[in-house]
Amino acid sequence: MQITKEQLKAWNACTDGYRYFLDKFPQGGSYSEVHQALINDSRFDDARWLVEKMYDTHIYNAEFIKSEIAATDKMVANLISEAESNTGDDAKIGSSGDDAKIGSSGHYAQIGSSGDRARIGSSGDRAQIGSSGDDAKIGSSGHYARIGSSGHYAQIGSSGDDAKIGSSGHYAQIGSSGHCARIGSSGYRARIGSSGDDAKIGSSGDCAQIAATGKNSIVAASGSVHRIVLGESSCAAIPYFDGTRTRFAIAYVGENGIKANTPYEVNSEGEFVEISDN
Questions:
Q1: Which of 76, 119, 220, 275 is the most exposed place for a label (fewest CB within 10 A)?
Q2: Contacts (Cβ under 8 Å, ≥6 apart) of 169
C-alpha cells in the first residue's frame, strides 16, 4: 500500500502535512512507513488523518485488510524485541502511562493499558488484551485472542482464528483475517473488516462500514450501516427507518440479486441497493 504525493493531493492533504511528506518521503513510501514516521515525530493528528483516509479508500479491499494484519504482525514482532516484552506463559502486564509499548509472546497473556496512544502486541495464543485509552493500536497474531477496547480511534488487528474482539469507542478500525472471528462494536462510525470464514459481526453504533468478505459470515446491526459488503453464502440483518418505525432489511448472498463482494446500502424501503466504491 504505497502513499504518493499524487494520492495526498487527491485526499486534499493540508500544506504542512504535504510538505512533511515530501521531506520525509520524496519518492513516496508505504502506508506503514509513513504512519510510523508520523507517530515517531508526534504528529498524531496527521497519523489519525492518514488512517481515516486509508480506510475510507480501501475498507472494502480484502488485500488492504490483509496488509493491515501483516503490519500488525510486524508490530508484534518489533514490540517483543524492543519494548518491555515478556516471553513467559500466563504473563500479566499493565501500563497506565501514555505512549506505552507493550509486548508479549507467551500464551495466556493478560495485558492491560489505560493510557492514550498505547501500542500493544501479542503473538501467543489465548491472549486477553484490554485498552481504555484513546488512539490505541492493538495487534494479536495468536489464536483464541480476546481483545477489548473502550477508547476512541482504536486500531485493532487480529490474524488468529477464533478471535473475540470488542470495541466501544468511536471511530474504531477493526480488522480480522482469522476464521470464526466474533466482532462486536458499539461505537460511532466504526469500520469493520473481516476476511476470514464464518465470522459473526455485531454493530450497534451508527454509520458503521462493514466488510465481511469471508464465506458464511453473519452480520447483525442495531445501529445504522453506511455500507456493507458480504462474502459468499453470507447474510446480514440491517435496520432501516420506513418513515413510521424501524424495521430490519435482510440480505442473503445469492438470493434476490444480492452479490458477493459488492458494496450495498439500505434505502428507506428496506432494499439493498448496490453502490459504487468511488
A1: 275
A2: 134, 149, 150, 151, 152, 153, 154, 187
Q: How far is CA 203 from CA 78, 102, 142, 143, 207, in A?
A: 32, 28, 24, 23, 10
- CA-to-CA dists, residue 194 to 113, 125, 208, 259, 277, angstroms: 25, 19, 14, 17, 18
Give SS3 for 112. strand
Q: Are 117 and 99 in contact (CB under 8 A)?
A: yes
CA–CA distance from 219 to each of 138, 155, 214, 229 (Å)? 23, 20, 11, 10
Q: What is the DSSP letter of 86?
A: B
The pLDDT confidence band at residue 79, using thresholds 50, 70 and 90, is low
Q: Helix/strand/coil (H, E, C) string of 30-44?
A: EHHHHHHHHHHCCCH
At 65, the amino acid letter reads I
- CB-based burial, 6-32: b 16+ in 10 Å, e otherwise: eebeebebeeebeebbeeebeebbebb
Find residue 49's DSSP bridge partners: none
Alpha carbons within 13 angstroms on the beta-carbon side of residue 34 total 28
pLDDT in tens, 5-36: 999 999 999 999 999 999 999 999 988 788 88
In angstroms, the CA 17 to CA 71 distance is 23
**Angstrom distance (rounded) from CA 208 to CA 202:** 10
Tell me the whole-structure pTM to 2 decimals. Answer: 0.74
DSSP state of 88: S
Residue 157 CB partners (closer than 8 Å, separation 6+): 68, 69, 71, 72, 138, 139, 140, 174, 175, 176
CA 193/CA 191 separation, integer angstroms: 7
